[in-house]
Amino acid sequence: MVAPAFSGAGSTHQGRRKHNEDSYYVDNEIGLYIVADGVGGQDAGEVASALACSEIAAQVKAGKSLGQAIDCANQAIARAVVEGVGKTGMASTVAALLIKGDLFEIAWLGDSRIFIWDGKLKLISRDHSLVESMLASGQITVEEAAAHPKKNVILAALGGGDANINVGQNGGVLRTGSRFLLCSDGVSDVVPAGGVFQCLMEAQSEQAAADQLVQAALDGQGKDNMTAVVVGIHESEFNLEYSDPHMEVVRTYDAESGVYQYHKRERVNVSAKVKKLAPLAGADNDDVTSFAAVDANLGEVEQEALSAAPPSARLLSWPCVIIGVALVLALLIWIL
Question: What domains appear along the chain, each with residue ranges and CATH number?
Answer without folding.
Answer: 5-275 (3.60.40.10), 298-335 (no CATH)
